[in-house]
């Protein structure tokens, strides 16, 4: 069975500071994909970043980077230079080898303080 | 052009009624999903179709019935609505089921059962 765990229900960060949102996963699939989505208060699901299990380098997309530690089965999201607009729910997700299931973690609510 | 569109955006109805939510994607994707997001923001997969074929049918009451007339459409019909069905329902699609493919989400349908 595959599982995604986000242990931080809520996080606060000062504007312009960096913040790390934790995500651990469990799978026996030989290959898989890891994803982060943002859900602002308006409700839409916004794709942020993707990391493949065989990718040698950590993924980066603008101010977002993914700290991928395969041996520890962790895929933490790092947001640099936080902005007020970063206040939202953040979901870690995984897609396994067969691709049928797309599992989500329980989410972390991030609040950026001015 | 909206890539994944769901209608209606809001649905308020009485217990016991039957309602449908429609979803269409114009991306040419093979795979479509329905997710339920509860009040705690947990995203639970309900159904998945690949090229009109049902491939995932999670433990969902049989009052919920998906229908895919073609691979661009996946509708959700709910019979005998209950208070516990109140949630946000998201439709999503992906090009294929491969592990590197992200999900493209619709804007969600907020269902309120009174």
Contiguous low-pLDDT stretches of chain A (5 residues minimum) are none
- The count of helical stretches of chain A stands at 0
Tell me how many strands of chain B there are.
Answer: 11
Strand content of chain B: over 45%
Rg estimate of chain A, integer Å: 14 Å
Order of helices and strands of chain A: EEEEEEEEEEEE
| Shape, principal axes of CA atoms of chain A | globular
N/C terminus separation of chain B: 34 Å
Largest sheet: number of strands, sense, barrel closure of chain A: 6 strands, mixed
Q: Can you count the beta strands of chain A? A: 12
Please tell me what the overall shape of chain B is: globular
Assembly context of the chains: heterodimer
**Beta-strand percentage range of chain A:** over 45%
Percentage of residues assigned to helices of chain B: under 10%
Largest sheet of chain B: 7 strands, mixed
Number of helices of chain B: 0
Tag the structure with descriptive keywords.
heterodimer; A: 114 residues; mainly beta; 6-stranded mixed sheet; 12 strands; 0% helix; globular; B: 114 residues; 7-stranded mixed sheet; 4-stranded antiparallel sheet; 11 strands; 55% strand
């Amino acid at each position: 069975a595959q599982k995604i765990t986000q242990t931080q229900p809520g996080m606060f960060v000062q504007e312009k500071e960096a913040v790390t949102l934790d995500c651990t996963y469990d799978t026996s699939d030989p290959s898989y994909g890891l994803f982060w989505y943002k859900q602002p208060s308006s409700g839409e699901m916004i794709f942020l970043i993707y990391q493949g299990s065989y990718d040698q380098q950590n993924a980066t997309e603008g101010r977002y980077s993914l700290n991928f530690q395969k041996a520890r089965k962790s895929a933490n999201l790092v947001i640099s230079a936080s902005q007020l607009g970063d206040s939202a729910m953040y979901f870690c997700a995984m897609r396994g080898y067969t691709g049928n299931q797309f599992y989500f973690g329980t989410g972390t609510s991030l609040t950026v303080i001015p | 052009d909206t890539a994944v569109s769901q209608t209606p955006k809001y649905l308020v109805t009485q217990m016991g009624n039957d309602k449908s939510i429609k979803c269409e994607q114009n991306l040419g994707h093979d795979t479509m999903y329905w997710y339920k997001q509860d009040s705690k923001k947990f995203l639970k997969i309900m159904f998945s179709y690949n090229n009109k074929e049902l491939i995932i049918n999670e433990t969902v009451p049989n009052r919920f019935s998906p229908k895919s007339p073609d691979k661009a459409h996946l509708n959700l019909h709910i019979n005998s609505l209950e208070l516990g069905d109140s949630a946000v329902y998201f439709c999503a699609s992906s090009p294929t089921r491969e592990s590197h493919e992200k999900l493209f989400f619709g804007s969600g349908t907020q269902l309120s059962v009174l």
